[in-house]
Structures are given as C-alpha cells and as structure tokens.
Specification:
Endonuclease III, domain 1, binds iron/sulfur cluster, mainly alpha
Length: 283
C-alpha cells in the first residue's frame, strides 16, 4: 500500500490541507476533555455529545472539579447522551483516579490510560492522538471497515484491526489515518453501497479494483463478532459499567466518535454531506 499516495489523495479530495502538518498545530486539545468527551460520545450522536461536553466543561473543566461534582448535577449536564447516569458515575470515577494515581495529569501511555475505569483502547488512543499528538491508531467502525475493504487487513474486530494496522502501517501515518478514513467512511466509503466509481483511492483499494474488473471483492471480514450482552454489573475493558460494550464508534449502528470525525485540517464534514461535485471522480 502506497500510504503517501493514499493520504495525499484523501487529503486533497476532502480539502483537508497537508496531512504532514503536525496535527496538534491546529488541533491542540485538553487531554482530560478529550478523554471525558470520548466517553460521553459512546452510543451518542455527535451533536448531543458536543452539547453535553460544552455544558459539562463550562462547569467542570478539570479532574479536580469533576471529581467533586455532585452526581445529580453532572447527570443534568450530560443528559442527552446515551446512558448518562452510567456515564456520570464513570467520568467522576475517572477524574478521581486521575487525581489519586496520576497527580491530576491524564496519563500518556496506553497501558495507564486503559487502567482507568471504562477506558478501552479506542478511547485511550483518541487521548494519545487528539490530546497529546502521540502516534496511535484509534480504530472505530469506519477505520475497521475501510481497512478491510482496502485489503490491508483481514480482521473481524476493531481490536484485531488496530493490532494489525500497528504492524503494517508506518508510524508516520498513524495520526492522520483515523481522521482521513473516518471522513472517507462518512462520505464515499459508507457501510452500505460504497461509491467506488467516485473514490479517489479506488486504484489502491482491493475492493475498488475487484469491482472495476468484474471480480468479486475480497470476502468481507468486517462484520463485528457478536458479543455477549453485558449484565448490569459487568465492566469490560473499554466499556462502561452497565452500558453495552464497545459503544460509540465501534458499534455498527452507532455514530462515529466525536473526536474521530475531525479532519487533520479544515472543517469537519457531516456524515450526510457528499464531497463537492467538482472533486467527484478525481483521481
Ligand atoms: S474503492 Fe470503494 S471500497 Fe475502496 S476505499 Fe474507495 S469507496 Fe471504499
């Protein structure tokens, strides 16, 4: 896979500017707010996440204030996000643990981040990328699906995809990979009926090449494995206690995580908006 070319074409197609520009130059964010915002985004539409996050951080912008916040008040502020009662408990626990174990600083390693309650690899990788600018690959449903369609992985779960991508993708492409593929997944490479004839990377894509030559595309591997329904008392890695596991962007029906919908530069597109017609078909 010629990642240089793929990145160039996607950046150009979506008007994202130069993907080589350090991401944090234009997108520096508070790691704590990335962390809490990503938890809030699970099983929640982007718009509702943004409203809830704004309300919450206006009042409780850091671990100290959130850990002390009354439960009922936090619930009111984040009402509108899915499982807001569960999330209210989870985010206050996270804040408290950051105070107790990390001296009030959001940790900077995957291992430490995933040791926080309700924080799984996707959320942790979002903090690394969007909070600290540390190369990592947050794999949501778009990244998982497109990676399989491109033919660079053949995996059944986002977790497998992340492991495989870390092996086969050069580290210099890790940070722009998520924002560009999410953008592509929301526009052309949709879950159903991808618009391959318009795709700027169809010649680099196993599925696009197969369809163009009348061959069957590579066998789809991107249907997530069915997972056992969690009980109200279970807490899985990366799942909220009492909420369905793998929520947010890894769910086939859930919207993309708020932090993963951003382009490396330039405005975020909504999932329903198509690329400008002048770009359609460019290659
Ligand atoms: S050619 Fe089709 S399947 Fe491949 S990346 Fe483009 S839209 Fe997706």
């Amino acid at each position: 896979m010629d990642w240089e070319r793929v990145m160039d074409r996607l950046s150009s197609f979506y008007g994202c500017g130069d993907w080589r520009v350090p991401y944090l130059r234009d997108h520096a964010e508070d790691p704590f707010q990335v962390l809490i915002g990503t938890v809030l985004s699970q099983r929640t539409r982007d718009e509702a996440t943004d409203v809830a996050s704004s309300r919450l951080f206006a009042r409780y912008p850091d671990p100290g204030s959130l850990a002390r916040a009354p439960r009922a008040r936090v619930e009111r502020l984040i009402h509108g996000t899915g499982f807001y009662r569960v999330k209210s408990r989870a985010i206050r626990q996270i804040a408290q643990e950051i105070l107790d174990r990390f001296h009030g600083e959001v940790p900077r390693t995957l291992e430490e981040l995933t040791s926080l309650p309700g924080v799984g690899p996707k959320t942790a990788n979002c903090v690394l990328v969007f909070g600290y600018g540390i190369p990592a690959i947050p794999v949501d449903t778009h990244v998982h699906r497109i990676s399989n369609r491109l033919g660079i992985v053949r995996t059944r779960t986002p977790e497998e995809t992340e492991r495989r991508l870390r092996q086969v993708v050069d580290r210099r492409y890790w940070i722009p990979l998520n924002p560009l593929l999410v953008q592509h997944g929301q526009n052309l490479c949709r879950p159903i009926s991808p618009r391959c004839p318009e795709c700027p990377i169809r010649n680099d894509c196993a599925t696009g090449r197969a369809l163009a030559t009348g061959r069957p595309p590579p066998r789809a591997q991107d249907r997530p494995q069915r997972r056992p329904r969690p009980s109200a008392t279970s807490a899985g890695a990366g799942g909220l206690r009492g909420a369905p596991r793998g929520g947010g962007a890894s769910s086939p029906r859930a919207p993309a995580r708020r932090t993963s919908t951003r382009s490396p530069r330039g405005p975020t597109r909504t999932r329903t908006r198509s690329p400008p017609s002048r770009r359609a078909g460019s290659n």
